[in-house]
């Protein structure tokens, strides 16, 4: 089996494949769309992260493709329906990086609340200022978690450890799960109306694209803190920018963008906003998570070769 790896995936995690005599593994990073289209026909499987768009063009050019393996949770960069219609199996790694994403959410939230990034830049530039970097505590804040799945659930637990009151909404989650996590399930609008902090942890799909836009910002409290460590496009970026500029949103953090890397002027303006802590899609970027997800997709490919059931296809 010939496998191409097109995004940065942990070499340690891929060892199962590199040691497997039935497999030839080619790591080819930084290919243009055309370069990948030119060579994909030579491969039986592709391993990606979020940097490669597995669209119709790629699936059509991949005449021998049998597996698209996504070393991560989100499959929004894969045309799953078209792949399935062509008999190509799409497999992901839904568990290995969820802790990493939850910890990154907390890192960004705390960085924002305590002005870590801007105070760090100020001190390194030779200044000694304290008053402008007075922060706010998480204790006693009402935090809203939208999407109480594997990442959202972990974020909720961590927010509770910081003594927040946690509200959550998720139409696919049982009241029992919310109860077990010690959070109150409410409607989306109740989250917008009542929370001091709002963090999204849903996949990006037709139901969630632009889920938080002008109407939702209109319902929010003045001074709300907004976080997106899930997917760019769940929160409408133009609406977020406008609400940051008006002061309705006091600030927050964004790790994921509707375009990666960002190109549009309004996204660049968002990134430049002082009151927004920003990172370049690092939620899943811990050594631990990258090894985990690479092992998970490698196991699935070996299962395929051994004619065994694939767990996350
Ligand atoms: C995920 O969907 O699991 C992550 O966004 C993966 C990645 O960092 O590419």
TrEMBL record:
Enzyme class of the recorded protein, top EC level: oxidoreductase
Domain of life, source organism: Bacteria
Recorded metabolic or biological pathway in which this protein acts: Amino-acid biosynthesis; L-serine biosynthesis; L-serine from 3-phospho-D-glycerate: step 1/3
Keywords attached to this entry: Amino-acid biosynthesis, NAD, Oxidoreductase, Serine biosynthesis
Record field: catalytic activity: (R)-2-hydroxyglutarate + NAD(+) = 2-oxoglutarate + NADH + H(+); (2R)-3-phosphoglycerate + NAD(+) = 3-phosphooxypyruvate + NADH + H(+)
E.C. designation(s): 1.1.1.95
GO molecular function terms attached to this record: phosphoglycerate dehydrogenase activity
Primary role: Catalyzes the reversible oxidation of 3-phospho-D-glycerate to 3-phosphonooxypyruvate, the first step of the phosphorylated L-serine biosynthesis pathway. Also catalyzes the reversible oxidation of 2-hydroxyglutarate to 2-oxoglutarate.
Family assignment from sequence similarity: Belongs to the D-isomer specific 2-hydroxyacid dehydrogenase family.
Name of protein: D-3-phosphoglycerate dehydrogenase
Provenance organism: Pelotalea chapellei
Lineage of origin: Bacteria, Pseudomonadati, Thermodesulfobacteriota, Desulfuromonadia, Geobacterales
Shown stretch of the complete protein: 1 to 313 of 541
């Amino acid at each position: 089996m010939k496998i191409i790896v097109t995004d940065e995936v942990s070499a340690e995690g891929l060892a199962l494949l590199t040691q497997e005599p039935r497999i030839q593994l080619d790591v080819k990073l930084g290919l243009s769309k055309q370069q990948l289209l030119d060579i994909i026909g030579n491969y039986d499987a592709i391993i990606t992260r979020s940097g490669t768009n597995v669209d119709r063009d790629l699936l059509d050019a991949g005449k021998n493709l049998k597996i698209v393996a996504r070393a991560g949770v989100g499959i929004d960069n894969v045309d799953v329906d078209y792949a399935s219609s062509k008999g190509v199996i799409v497999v992901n790694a839904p568990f290995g990086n969820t802790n990493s994403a939850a910890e990154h959410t907390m890192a960004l939230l705390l960085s924002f609340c305590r002005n870590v990034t801007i105070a760090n830049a100020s001190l390194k530039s030779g200044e000694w200022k304290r008053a402008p970097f007075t922060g706010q505590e998480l204790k006693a804040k009402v935090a809203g978690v939208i999407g109480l799945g594997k990442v959202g659930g972990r974020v909720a637990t961590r927010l509770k450890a910081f003594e927040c009151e946690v509200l959550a909404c998720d139409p696919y989650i049982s009241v029992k799960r919310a109860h077990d996590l010690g959070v109150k399930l409410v409607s989306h609008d109740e989250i917008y109306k009542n929370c001091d902090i709002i963090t999204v942890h849903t996949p990006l799909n037709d139901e969630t694209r632009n889920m938080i836009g002008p109407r939702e910002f209109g319902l929010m409290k003045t001074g709300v803190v907004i976080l997106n460590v899930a997917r760019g496009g769940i929160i409408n970026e133009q609406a977020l920018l406008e609400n940051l500029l008006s002061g309705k949103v006091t600030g927050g953090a964004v790790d994921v963008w509707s375009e990666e890397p960002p190109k549009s002027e309004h996204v660049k303006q968002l990134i430049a906003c002082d009151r927004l802590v920003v990172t370049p899609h690092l939620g899943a970027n811990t050594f631990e998570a990258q090894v985990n997800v690479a092992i998970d997709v490698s196991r699935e490919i070996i299962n395929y070769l051994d004619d065994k059931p694939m767990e996350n296809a």
